[in-house]
Specification:
Helix 1 crosses helix 7 (221-240) and helix 3 (86-102) crosses helix 4. Strand 7 (164-169), helix 6 and strand 8 form a beta-alpha-beta unit. Helices cover 31% and strands 20% of the residues. It has a nine-stranded mixed beta sheet with strand order 1-2-4-3-5-6-7-8-9, sandwiched between helices. It is of the alpha/beta class.
Length: 288
């Protein structure tokens, strides 16, 4: 592992050089928040979907972090109940992208390039981002710790040719609450799947939340930092073409605290322990 990639991840996990401004999407008719750099023209924009039983307030540091690196980041604050509509959240993400691309932000000092739009999210919000990407061409998709949705994202993924970053927790990548492997295997365009060391799928969720009452794990600072770095590095390369961060879009690159995952790799079958009956049959054959 090169020292340069280590230092890049460390840098990308820390706040960027831009001063961050916060706004309210509600004035446009879409409940939610928007974070932007203080100024900039033709910026990339990210529409971010929250996870189940969470809201945009649980991702404030992540959203601010992206804005500090020069991204306009907007997040709808809808479908927060126990029985959310993934299709409705996907629609809200598309509406949010339209707002970012069509409205001059920051008193006219900020604009978004129409070809630098990203759909992203966490958990069910990652699934909603994929559903939205099946309806609209975007520059990239970022699915952070994706969870199963209705309709299933695996059924939609083969038709999506946008490049994708899929991040999963090494602790639960193959659990029923994660469909990262199936989503990555079905993806139609270029794809990077990374498992974050010792991470669970709720590790990036900040603050108090309803999930805590259901026994969900708490915030994991290292998971949060690593995920931020992976996301910023990937988008800096895919959207801005900055070759400094090429490793973050390389599905085989060695990046600290993560492991690249091949979703189509067939695991070696575990050796089976012979039963007592089988052992007895072997003994009887040897006696003959």
């Amino acid at each position: 592992m090169s020292a340069s990639v280590k230092s890049l991840l460390s840098s990308l996990s820390s706040p960027g050089p831009h001063r961050v401004m916060r706004g309210n999407l509600g004035i446009t008719g879409q409940p939610g928040v928007v974070f932007t750099p203080e100024k900039g023209l033709n910026l990339p924009a990210v529409a971010f979907g929250h996870g189940w039983l969470t809201g945009v307030g649980n991702y404030r540091k992540l959203l601010e972090h992206l804005a500090s690196w020069g991204f306009v980041v907007a997040a709808p604050d809808t479908e927060r109940g126990p029985i959310p509509s993934h299709l409705n959240l996907a629609t809200d993400l598309l509406t949010t992208l339209d707002i970012c691309a069509g409205v001059r932000l920051g008193e006219g000092k900020i604009s978004v390039h129409p070809d630098r739009l990203v759909l992203a999210g966490h958990g069910m919000g990652a699934g909603a981002a994929v559903i939205a990407a099946a309806q609209r061409k975007v520059a990239a998709v970022a699915a952070l710790f994706p969870a199963p949705t209705a309709p299933t994202t695996e059924s939609l993924a083969p038709e999506i040719d946008a490049p994708a970053l899929i991040v999963a927790g090494a602790e639960d990548i193959d659990s029923v609450g994660s469909n990262a492997l199936a989503l990555a295997s079905a993806w139609g365009g270029p794809m990077v799947l990374r498992a974050v060391d010792d991470a669970s799928h709720n590790g990036i969720v900040e603050g108090r939340r309803a999930l805590a009452a259901l026994g969900a794990g708490g915030h994991e600072p290292r998971t949060d930092r690593t995920t931020r770095g992976l996301l910023v590095g990937y988008l800096m390369y895919q959207l801005l073409g900055d070759k400094t961060y090429k490793a973050f879009a390389d599905p085989e690159a060695a990046i600290p605290h993560t492991a690249p995952v091949d979703p189509d790799a067939v695991p070696e079958p575990e050796p089976q322990t012979p039963s007592k009956r089988q052992l007895l049959q072997v003994v009887q054959m040897l006696r003959k």
